[in-house]
Amino acid sequence: MNTSHQINKPNQSDNPDKPYDQGWKRLLDICAQDLLDWIARKVVFAGRRAEEFQSEKVGADLMLEGIYEDQRVLIHIEAQSTPDTTMAQRLLIYNVLARRRYKCPVLSYVIYLRKGGERPAPPLEWFLPDGREILRFHYEDIELPNYAPEALFATGLKGVLPLIPFAADGARREVVEQIIARLLPVHDTINKELLVLTRLFASLAFDKDDQTNQEWLKRRFAMLLDILQEAPAFQQIFALGEEKGLEKGRKEGREEGREEVQRETVKKMSKTILTLVTRRFPKLKTLTRGQLLLIEQPQILDDLFLRIALARTQEEAQEYLLTWDTQSETEALTDQ
To answer: Fewer CB near the terminus (10 Å): N or C of the chain?
Structure first.
């Protein structure tokens, strides 16, 4: 009898990773030690650990291996953009499974990107009806909005820079400019990727209805296009193309002009996505070509490009290609 089972995040199968999820994982991929220096001082990064625990598959964001006080430990970090009343129990499940699998202490952290909503406070405690304690689980929660941007800049950790827009009063142009200044001039791929992730996280931290700042953000990073286009996750080429198209449509003052610009933008974006897939996941080229024929909205292509650029495996990229229509419908309903 097959007794294996799967433990996932709530509704995970119905809610594919948002761009910020992939951006967060990419940030930890390239700057693990910086994040550990910030939240788990004295822990020295020693490598990644598989997110599968024998027969159980756990949807944990990340498991890092480290050395703490000369002892091997695991560090589990979750990033959360919305309230989740089950967070403490999820952390407990991951902690127990990792401890059983790897037989070493596990440090658990959750980083909240935004304020608001109901969320549990550590530690997690369970009691019997008569008041006797059953369990006490300690973990650390980190509220980014409780940090001042200056405090995060003061850490001197490059890996923390893309997260600063989520800090208290961090979603400001001058803060983004400070981040850009610290990553320029670009001398390596890491800085290029951190710039792209800064663009992604800043767009999420800024009010989505504040079109003035959102448009400024697009224009500001479009100026860095020559630098960013070499990074695996660059998306500014799309923002720049979309901005030029809208400007042309306004000048012409005709709906036909805007539609023509959109068609040209979709054509260019589709070509770029096909090139990216051909280079990273050549086996998905035929599938990609067919899916691109169905997409007519630049914003959907923009999102699809970012997801594929940040995908760590061919399977992830294939999932995004097959579910782009479902995901766009879900997000449309969420925004209503």
So the answer is: N
**Do the bridges between strand 63-68 and strand 71-80 make them parallel or antiparallel, or are there none, so unpaired?**
antiparallel
Answer yes or no: is 130 within a domain: yes
Helix ranges (H only) for the chain are 19-30, 32-39, 87-102, 149-154, 173-183, 189-205, 211-222, 225-228, 236-252, 255-280, 285-292, 298-310, 314-335
Beta bridge partners of 57: 6, 52
Q: Pick left, alpha or beta for residue 156 (phi over 0 → left; psi -120 to 50 → alpha; otherwise beta).
A: left
Statement to judge: residues 23 and 130 lie in one domain: yes
Residue 329 lies in a domain: no
Judge contact between 160 and 194, C-beta under 8 A.
no
Name residues whose C-beta falls within 8 Å of residue 161's C-beta, 6 or more positions apart in sequence.
152, 153, 179, 182, 183, 194, 198
User: Pick from 288, 293, 263: which is nearest to 277 by CA?
Assistant: 288
Amino acid at the residue 21: D
CA distance 141 to 135: 19
- Give CA–CA dist 316/321, Å, rounded: 9
Task: List pLDDT tens digits, range 205-254.
Answer: 998 888 888 899 888 887 777 677 666 655 433 344 444 444 444 454 44
- What is the tally of structural domains in the chain? 3
In a shared domain, residues 158 and 120: no
Domain boundary pick from 234, 251, 275: 234
Q: How crowded is the C-beta side of 225, counted as CA atoms within 13 Å?
A: 11
Residue 48 β-bridge partners? 64
- Alpha carbon separation from 23 to 17, 20, 204, 276 (Å, rounded): 10, 5, 11, 17
CA distance 128 to 133: 6
Residue 159: is its pLDDT beyond 90? yes
